[in-house]
Amino acid sequence: MGCSFTVWQEVASRFIKFCLGAIGAVFIHNVAIAQIAPIDLSRDKIVISKSQQTLEFFKNGSAAKKYRVCLGLNPLGPKRVQGDSRTPEGDYFVCYKSTASRFHRFIGISYPGVQDAQAAFEAGLICLDDREAITDQIRKGESPPWNTPLGGWVGIHGYPSSSYEHKWALLLYPKPHNWTDGCIALWNFEIEELFRSVALKTPVRINP
After folding, report:
1. pLDDT over 70 for what percent of the chain?
2. Average pLDDT over residues 78-92
3. Does residue 49 belong to any structural domain of this protein?
4. Is 140 among the domain residues?
5. Is the pTM of this model over 0.85?
6. Residues 1 and 83 grouped into a single domain
7. Do 94 and 189 share a domain, yes or no?
8. Predicted confidence (pLDDT) at residue 189 exceeds the cutoff of 60
9. H-type helices in the chain, by residue range?
10. Which pLDDT band, with edges at 50, 70 and 90, does 19 fall under?
11. What CATH number does residue 74 fall under?
12. E strand or H helix that includes residue 204
């Protein structure tokens, strides 16, 4: 009886582990689908190409504006952690807008996204609480936490508002030279134009 009971305990344990694993796989699969779902072409959207250093704004499915942009100082590859000076890659949305910015105007992007959080969790870069906090905010269509090891405050902005900083930025990093910490930069008159046109929750796709 003792041996038989032990065997059944092992069978039950393996069954429970299998079920939990299946649930986890479904969760991750659904997260991935949500992250890479096609953008609705009938909606406004922003599409950024890192390789071409361009930003296109689509209005009601039609190309409305195209800009040349500056990227992070380390533009190759997706953003992984705070301080890597990389511009993210993937599907995001406009989650924040501010005129009170050191860089003239700021259009915040919802980095880190669900896929970023899942990959970072699996790599041991963030804890479960951080992953869940990011996921919950993204699902609510709100800004994710920007104080995790993955970094934050990534967005589209202009050149420095300070006349001194503005002068040196123009001299050292005229467009299209890359100079940001991971953001996407436009001339100030361009960010003003885009700022007026873009609404919160507008989808943003950043291609390699």
Report:
1. 80
2. 97
3. yes
4. no
5. no
6. no
7. yes
8. yes
9. 2-36, 114-122, 128-139, 163-172, 188-197
10. very low
11. 2.40.440.10
12. strand 203-207
Confidence grade of residue 170 (pLDDT, cut at 50, 70, 90): confident
User: In the numeric block, which tokens belong to residue 175?
Assistant: 């467009």
Same domain, 65 and 95: yes
pLDDT band at residue 175 under the 50/70/90 scheme: confident
Distance, C-alpha 39 to centroid of its chain: 15
3-class SS of residue 45:
strand
Task: Classify residue 159: in a domain, yes or no.
Answer: yes
Same domain flag for 50 and 33:
no
Give me the residue label for tokens 């090891």. 149
Domains of the chain: total: 2
| Residue position matching structure tokens 């299209």 | 176
- Give CA–CA dist 163/208, Å, rounded: 33
In a domain, 189, yes or no: yes
* Phi, psi of 93, deg, nearest 5: -150, 160
Cβ–Cβ contacts within 10 Å for residue 70, how many? 24
Q: Quick check: bond before 112 cis, omega within 30?
A: yes
Residue 195 to residues 10, 64, 104, 116: CA-CA distances in angstroms? Answer: 60, 14, 10, 26
For residue 1, the enclosing domain spans 1-37
